[in-house]
Design a protein that fits this description.
The protein is built from twelve helices and 15 strands. The protein has about 325 residues and is of the alpha/beta class. Helix 3 links the parallel strand 4 and strand 5.
């Protein structure tokens, strides 16, 4: 099987690259050449995907069994791919987002039939527009598209809301014994998924005819409260964090850039029903509990001081929120 990943070296996609090669897939990456792949056996096409003429030239000699775009963010990106790969791939997978689901619903259990819509987050609305463009092309032109929705998948990020991601602020503050700010009261339910578990589902979908025309999410089955998530991060550091709580509305009022990720996503309780991915890929069984996965993530950050970035603006915000919570 000959597969192209547009992207393929990121927090989510690297594990899928590794698994695809391990399974004997002829895997190609196309990227700008600014990231070192580090996955032995991957072949690379160096090109900026935003340069349409150069991209068309670079791809001209190839046909694919499957193309996965990890870095398409809107309808324009998807429409470009439809034009590029029509007649040149048997299958196309668009990586969308679990944040596209309209929350809250009557039930916290999310299925692929849960309505889409996110009035708080432009990122999610753009992803939805990409989904719509792909499904139009499938229905009207027979383009062989599949939508995949990951949700808060981690490997080389800290999957917490405040001072996490690619920043080391929250972890550093835990080490220093400072209070750790958690949104809300920390009791809402959430799902975090290790990238290696996500890869089991994604790689199983490659060139799978039954997946064409479908949308599917791929997540862990483990459900945790935010308090548990933060405590697992602390346990990976060998400590018990001092958790303090600030209402999500208060956080977003103080720092509006969090509105999408909080009010449009992480302030709600969610559980994902993974029946559909299991029906398509019966071998999909997520096995990495967060308590174990976060240890390997912390080890990755600790292996290089260059990865332990302390963002000064985030530090100021966390100090302000700490003041609010303790007064």
């Amino acid at each position: 099987m000959k597969v192209l990943f547009i992207g393929g070296t990121g927090n989510i996609s690297t594990a899928s690259s590794c698994l695809a090669v391990e399974k004997g897939i002829e895997l190609w990456h196309i990227n700008r050449g600014k990231s070192v792949c580090g996955v032995h056996g991957v072949r690379t096409i160096t090109c900026d995907v935003t340069n349409s003429a150069a991209l068309e030239t670079a791809l001209a000699p190839h046909k694919w069994d499957c193309v996965v775009n990890w870095i398409a963010f809107n309808a324009k990106d998807v429409e470009r791919d439809i034009a590029l790969f029509s007649g040149k791939t048997k299958h196309y997978i668009y990586i969308s987002s679990g944040s596209c689901y309209d929350l809250p619903q009557h039930s916290p259990v999310i299925t692929e039939n849960t309505p889409l819509g996110n009035p708080y987050w432009q990122y999610s609305r753009d992803k939805i527009a990409g989904e719509q463009a792909l499904m139009r092309a499938h229905i009207e032109k027979g383009f062989p598209g599949t939508i995949v929705r990951p949700s808060h998948t981690y490997s080389t990020i800290i999957p917490i809301t405040l001072g996490g991601g690619n920043k080391y602020n929250a972890v550093n503050r835990m080490k220093l014994g400072k209070p750790t700010v958690v949104h809300g009261d920390g009791t809402s339910l959430w799902v975090v998924t290790h990238a290696e578990d996500f890869a089991l589902g994604l790689v199983g979908l490659l060139n799978l005819e039954a997946a064409i025309g479908e949308a599917v999410h791929i997540t862990s089955d483990e459900v945790l409260t935010w308090n548990q998530i933060y405590r697992h991060v602390g346990a990976a550091l060998g400590l018990e964090p001092n958790l303090i709580h600030v209402a999500s509305d208060t956080i977003c009022t103080l720092e509006p850039s969090y509105t999408g990720t909080l009010l449009g996503d992480k302030s709600h309780s969610v559980m994902f029903d993974n029946s559909k991915i299991r029906s398509l890929v019966p071998s999909f069984v997520p096995i990495i509990p967060f308590s174990e996965g976060i240890r390997t993530t912390i080890e990755w950050f600790e292996a290089s001081s260059d990865r332990q970035y302390i963002d000064p603006d985030t530090e100021i915000l966390l100090d302000k929120l700490t003041g609010i919570a303790t007064t």
